Write the structure tokens for this entry.
Amino acid sequence: QLQLQESGPGLVKPSETLSLTCTVSGGSISSSSYYWGWIRQPPGKGLEWIGSIYYSGSTYYNPSLKSRVTISVDTSKNQFSLKLSSVTAADTAVYYCARQLRPNCSGGSCYGAYFDYWGQGTLVTVSS
Amino acid sequence: QSALTQPPSVSGSPGQSVTISCTGTSSDVGSYNRVSWYQQPPGTAPKLMIYEVSNRPSGVPDRFSGSKSGNTASLTISGLQAEDEADYYCSLYTSSSTYVFGGGTKLTVL
């Protein structure tokens, strides 16, 4: 059974960089069939996609966060990571990592464009 | 980025059916099959319930169904049960290879 586990500091100071790691077990992060993504949820609010990465290092980011986000992958450790720079209180959220199938698109229709496994999430608070 | 509109809340009694809508535009929801639905009970991670508008992953009860009409995708839950009380989110995979989520709908089982 595939499992994803987020880890990292639960408290980050304003203007600093938030760093989280997602460890994948029960499956290989190097599979050509999947992308790996980060999604966040501010307390009491909805979900926001941050970005996704392929095992080769190819990335896609939310345009609203792109200037501050870096997602990387370490296939030797079966992990992928998130860095979010210049954080403010607005970045306080539960951060989830998730697996998504590699989208297969043809004629506008896409197959596999969804998140099928999620980590339990980790709360990151931005505060001095 | 595309915006997806969901009602903030819906409610129903046990055994009834409820439908949650997710409205986009003719350029996204209306044109393609790229909509998925997630269930999030309080304090837990989201769970995939429907993908590609109307497909159900294995293990999801057939009480959950998805459909689309025009620019609106819908999630219908029939035979409502107390355990269905949760927040529900629709998601769209955009033509820019990004994802956008709807604002979420809180389902209350009366």
